[in-house]
Amino acid sequence: MRATEAARPDRLHDDPLAAAVVASAEQEIPSAPPGAAEFMAIRTRFYDNFLVDSARQVVVLAAGLDARAFRLPWAPDVRLFELDLPELLAFKDGVIATADLTAACTRVVVPVDLRDDWTAALSAAGFAADQPTAWVAEGLLQYLSEPDKKRLLDTISGLSAPGSRFAFDHMDASADDREAVVDALEKIRSMGAEFVATVDDPAGWLTAHGWTVAVDRIPALAVAYGRPLPDFMDPAAANATALCTAALPA
């Protein structure tokens, strides 16, 4: 989906890694459910905007095939930490080498399982807990159990200096019976993952840890980005996805 979006003349983002990943796939990539590409373009642009003016220390949780280290206009002193499973990061580095890409910031790969204790590994990689951090959890919380989500938030809060920021996405439980959502979840399950609904009150969830939270919705963002959602998309289903940013006082 990111490779297709990058090829559009009115693209909301570019991604030099996406086409290389598609080319390296050893099996057919499943087609996306209707509306998924439009959703992905909006969500990607939202996180891009969040990070453009970010802190000089960035942590991308469950980084997967995220290419922001290579495609965003970073300040030269930014350090970006990518956390994910070792085998996934090894595959990604192979694709990066084949595509001959160079990071626009200092990219630090940290192979961990986010369901375990990853604090020591991040610190050993050079993370500075006394510096403001921009945290990104794109498409992550939906796949964690409630205890794992709480543990992740506790860890982020404990490592965040004043002035830190956090961006994540969340789907309201009210969307569970929408046809578009059911179809998307079935596609996700067919690829071996399991979707777990997140809490319905992300603001309260973080406010209890001292964060100030702002919530944006997909349809409104689509209009703001000049890419209104197509008529075939279910407005209620699209509106059930919240893209959240949180901040600690400086």
UniProtKB/TrEMBL annotation:
Role noted for this protein: Exhibits S-adenosyl-L-methionine-dependent methyltransferase activity.
Main EC class the enzyme belongs to: transferase
Recorded superkingdom: Bacteria
Gene Ontology MF terms in the entry: methyltransferase activity
UniProt keyword Disulfide bond, yes or no: no
Record's keyword annotation contains Plastid: no
Pfam families attached to this UniProt entry: LCM (PF04072)
Similarity comment text for this entry: Belongs to the UPF0677 family.
The entry's keywords: Methyltransferase, S-adenosyl-L-methionine, Transferase
EC number from the UniProt entry: 2.1.1.-
Alphabetized InterPro entries for the sequence: Ppm1/Ppm2/Tcmp, SAM-dependent_MTases_sf, SAM_mthyl_Trfase_ML2640-like
Name of this chain's protein: S-adenosyl-L-methionine-dependent methyltransferase
GO biological process: methylation
